[in-house]
Design goal:
Blueprint (H helix, E strand, L loop, with lengths): L29 H10 L14 E2 L11 H7 L10 H14 L3 E5 L2 H12 L6 E4 L4 H9 L3 E4 L20 H11 L6 E4 L12 H14 L3 E4 L3 H11 L8 H11 L2 E5 L9 E5 L2 H8 L2 H4 L10 H14 L2 H4 L1 H15 L12 E5 H4 L9 H13 L1 E2 L1 E3 L19 E5 L7 H16 L7 E5 L5 H4 L1 E4 L3 H13 L4
Helix pairs in contact: 1-16, 2-12, 3-12, 4-5, 6-7, 14-17, 16-17
This protein binds ligand F0G.
Length: 482
């Protein structure tokens, strides 16, 4: 956003866009919210959006499009093979990342499927990375490899001042290379990270990882799904880059990696995905799978209209006014909540504001899913839908035991260009009330637990009548207010 100085004592973010199309929202009375979350098995993924006021579940496919993106959609070339739309997108990718080849896919996890199939050549391999994402780990383990998480120690410290908590610990990577080099399928860097609070990686870290991989002949893969926020943080937090343009930073990242893949549901304000590759041999190995799993090479399962929107969206990603809105809103939320002593992940990252459920609900053991309970409670008291990012989001070990997550977070995503500051202020107000009444919140237990990615459609029940008691207190304090 523009560099605006304020006359009054406190700063706040100002949107550098205006709203031209709106969608009406619905805020149900608190009793109906309790009914809705009960119907949804206390899993916010299973709520019907018509019953949600502010949908802060994710920024995936929910970012607002611009007038220019919508206009571009009308120019899409609807042909199965050789679509003009593809060549426009391919040229844009070449321009922003400097990569030679572009393979389209229908979304981020599709890229992960293709990459794991090609690069995990036998069971027993490992994939070192700063931190895993749910779908990434699921695909890598499907082909028999194991994820080795080597984020810097501070990445897992909730309250910190480290501006780049997403960095990969290069010493640990060196150690892994020393002991298990032949087992390394590839090295993956997620920029920025998802499950540890949208924390970014620095360009210095990208460079170090790149140099080491090049020296050792190991393939270096960048997950750029959350790159827009990460670009903003490199420019605003890394001194050496404050005078570089976003285009220069993006291109430099592109040159340091062998493969970049992304979910275009996040990067580029559209929907879809793709894999960008420098090397012809690698591209050819992955290319074989595209028509098999995704679609022909010039659409890869994406709608051509979305591809046109993505081309324009990538251009908008080079514009600091466009990419700074979400991180600045998140930072506003984090600052206000921190001032009220409410435990949140700091420093503010990208993607969303992350509540620290482990501390807020310290009376609930991890086996009773404090982050899931907090997400359900927040919906009841506000109509806001957040996402559990804790033990519920983990998979059981092959022996059936349950790994306890490093962090128990409730992610309140801030989709780009969607919410207004008054909506963010409503969220802060209700989180504050919930925090003051946190003692009323109890735990959850599974009633139905799927084997794979259980957080998506598992169903849970409260372990006491705590939800009824929470509603009662809400009514005592707020009367008939929504
Ligand atoms: N990588 C990262 C870092 C992601 O955040 C996601 C998706 C993916 C890969 C997979 O991409 O959804 O297009 O298949 N994150 C979403 C979220 C689901 O809500 O955070 P996808």
């Amino acid at each position: 956003m523009a560099d605006i100085k304020f006359f009054g004592s406190s700063d706040f973010p100002v949107e550098m866009h205006k709203v031209r199309i709106i969608q009406k929202l619905n805020l149900l009375p608190v009793d109906e919210r309790l009914d809705s979350i009960t119907d949804a098995g206390n899993n916010t993924f299973l709520l019907k959006n018509r019953n949600v006021f502010l949908d802060m579940l994710t920024d995936s496919g929910t970012n607002a499009m611009s007038d220019k993106q919508l206009a571009a959609m009308m120019t899409a070339d609807d042909s199965y093979a050789g679509s003009e739309t593809f060549y426009r997108l391919e040229a844009k990718i070449q321009e922003v990342f400097g990569t030679k080849y572009f393979l389209p896919a229908h979304q981020g996890r599709a890229c992960e499927n293709l990459l794991s199939q090609v690069l995990v050549t036998r069971p027993g391999m490992i994939v070192p990375m700063n931190y895993h994402f749910t779908t990434t780990k699921a695909h890598i383990s499907r082909f028999g490899a194991e994820v080795e998480e080597i984020v810097v120690d501070e990445g897992l410290v909730v309250k910190s001042k480290n501006p780049f908590k997403g960095n990969l610990n290069v010493d640990k990577l060196r150690e892994l290379i020393k002991t298990r080099k032949d087992d390394i399928a590839f090295v993956r860097l997620e920029a920025g990270t998802n499950l540890i609070g949208g924390q970014p990686v620095s360009m210095a870290n990208v460079k170090e990882v790149s140099e080491l991989c090049r020296k050792e002949g190991i393939i270096f893969v960048l997950d750029a799904s959350l790159l827009a926020d990460n670009l903003y943080f490199i420019k605003t937090r890394e001194d050496a880059y404050k005078n570089k343009t976003i285009a220069q930073i993006m291109l430099e990242i592109g040159e340091l990696t062998d493969i970049i893949y992304f979910s275009a549901r996040k990067l580029g304000f559209a929907r879809g995905g793709g894999i960008c590759v420098h090397r012809q041999d690698l591209m050819e190995r992955i290319r074989e799978l595209v028509p098999l799993f995704e679609g022909f090479l010039t659409y890869g399962g994406m709608s051509v209209r979305e591809m046109e929107a993505l081309t324009v969206g990538l251009d908008e990603t080079l514009d600091m006014d466009m990419i700074s809105q979400a991180p600045q809103f998140i930072s506003h939320m984090v600052d206000e909540l921190s001032a009220m002593n409410i435990p949140v992940v700091t420093p503010a990252g990208g993607l969303g504001c992350h509540l620290n459920a482990k501390e807020i609900l310290s009376h609930i053991p991890q086996e009773r899913y404090p982050a899931g309970a907090l997400a359900a409670a927040l919906y009841i008291v506000s109509g806001i839908r957040g996402m559990e990012r804790g033990t519920l989001s983990e998979q059981r070990n092959p022996d059936g035991t349950e790994p306890l997550a490093n962090m128990e977070l409730v992610r309140l995503a801030v989709p780009r260009r969607v919410f207004t500051l008054s909506q963010i202020k409503y969220a802060i107000d209700r989180i504050n009330w919930l925090y003051q009444n946190r003692g009323l919140v109890g735990g959850l237990k599974f009633t139905e637990e799927p084997k794979i990615l259980r957080f998506f459609y598992g169903r849970l029940a409260p372990d006491s009548d705590w939800q009824e008691r929470l509603v009662k207190k809400f009514k005592e304090d707020f009367g008939e207010s929504l």
